[in-house]
Amino acid sequence: MLLNEHFLNFLVEVNPKPTVVVSTFYKFIQLDKIIEIKNLFNDFLKDLEIKGTILLAEEGINSTIAGEYNDMLEFFNKLSELKKFKDIEPKYSVCSTNPFLRMKVRLKNEIVTIGDKQVNPNQFLGEYLEPNEWNQIINDKNAMIIDTRNEYEVSIGSFKNSIDPKLKSFRDFPKWVEKNFLKKNLSKETKIGMFCTGGIRCEKSTSYLKQLGFNNVYHLKGGILKYIEEIPENKSLWNGECFVFDYRVSVDHQLKKGNFDMCFACRMPLSLKDKKNKYFKEGKSCHHCHDKTSPNQKRRFEERQKQILLSKKRNLSHIGPKG
Q: At residue 10, does pLDDT exceed 80?
């Protein structure tokens, strides 16, 4: 199915039509001439009211973008014409306002950073499990289910029976594997299932484990977002909300904005209870970071919050540091 057809099918299922469509997509594929590809994307986007981020590297593309549905359809029409990208399978959600401030197309060394360029999902890859197959491995007592996201993401929701490696960043995953798999001589025949938000980190994780010689490695196709899009809540083994990297902060099982906000000083998700804590100062600090930032940083955060509030009062979008 072409990208534009995939998007039109999504729109048919959403009624009434959403104000803003958010789309997350990635693909591991060898890309040459990435500067030319970056210029092409900028040309695609120059007349469209779409915001978000597209990352390009020699290993592929990783993106989350959002815009009014006619602009998004035009973008996917153009992307469908490119042979390398036409079979991408995006995930979609909706919201009332655009959760991003600007559009950025960036060149990177890796589209998701594990810190080892020898890890190549274009050569080694675990086995995909569709969302409707995922519950089976979760309920398999002989399987290890690993959440490959950062600790603060896991803190607001995860799958039943899953292991939290307590990663500060995805770069820490190889160290965790070294300590918990290799040094403990974990059998290379162990059944291992991994997942993340949209599928990209767990896909790279399976590649890493396959290169280490683990044979029974699986990952959730499309990630958590695809799972909660396709699996009815009464059959779901997902508990909590799913952290997303935009101003919605989290989404619920209907893929609508969840109940969390974000501390813009330390980026931790905050519940309503967290925001009642005495250390919470909007835009400045929370109980996670109040004693970890300098007075100069606090002043900077406070000034930024003033600018955000001023922009809202003037009905403008606050523009942060340039990317």
A: no
